[in-house]
From TrEMBL:
A Pfam family that the UniProt record links to this protein: Peptidase_A24
Assigned keywords, A-Z: Membrane, Transmembrane, Transmembrane helix
Organism: Photobacterium galatheae
Top-rank taxon, per record: Bacteria
InterPro entries reported in the protein's UniProt record: Prepilin_IV_endopep_pep
Cellular component per GO, a single term: membrane
Entry keyword annotation includes Lyase: no
Gene3D superfamilies on file: 1.20.120.1220
Keyword Transmembrane helix assigned: yes
Signal peptide segment: none
Protein name: Prepilin type IV endopeptidase peptidase domain-containing protein
Molecular functions (GO terms): aspartic-type endopeptidase activity
Annotated TM spans: 6-23, 30-48, 92-111, 131-151
Length: 164
């Protein structure tokens, strides 16, 4: 039987991921509170690894540099760094799956903008891609933090992970 503390943490993580996806899609922002809660959950459940900290910090600094250029949101950078820490040794699969989901999401938004050029969003940021969704999907597909394996894919050697 699963540890009740882990189950509560997974439920809270599911709530935080849901909240940040909704706010990213509707407002193009990722709440810092959601990121901090996910970081606390990751630190509590994932064994400490200096290498994971270095990978996360490298991702954070690269993401903040991309933010300075206007290529990526700061919340996206922070979220990806936390997800890479939580992914442990599966960080590369997490990054790969984030890129795959991000590419798919970008194609969807590109098609929408091309097929519906007269569509006017409520604010101009709605023409951008909510990359927090792709990061969330990438993390959930490759991160053992929310561990409920369904299938093992042949593309990557990590289980597909979903919410409990």
């Amino acid at each position: 039987m699963a540890d009740p503390g882990v189950t509560v943490a997974q439920g809270l993580a599911a709530l935080m991921f849901s909240w940040l996806v909704v706010t990213d899609v509707t407002e193009r922002r990722i709440p810092n509170l959601a990121i901090v809660v996910l970081l606390i959950i990751a630190v509590m459940l994932v064994p400490f690894s200096g290498m994971q900290v270095l990978i996360s910090l490298a991702c954070l600094f690269a993401g903040l540099a991309a933010f300075a250029k206007g290529w990526l949101g700061a919340g996206d950078s922070k979220l990806l760094a936390v997800c890479l820490y939580a992914a442990q040794e599966h960080w590369l699969a997490c990054l790969l799956m984030t890129a795959v989901f991000g590419g798919g999401l970008s194609l969807i938004y590109l098609a929408r903008n091309r097929w519906f050029p007269t569509w006017q969003p409520a604010h101009s940021a709605a023409c951008t891609v909510p990359y927090g969704v792709a990061i969330t999907l990438g993390a959930l597909s490759a991160t053992p933090l929310i561990s409920m394996p369904l299938i093992s894919t042949s593309l990557i050697s990590t289980p597909l992970i979903i919410f409990p």
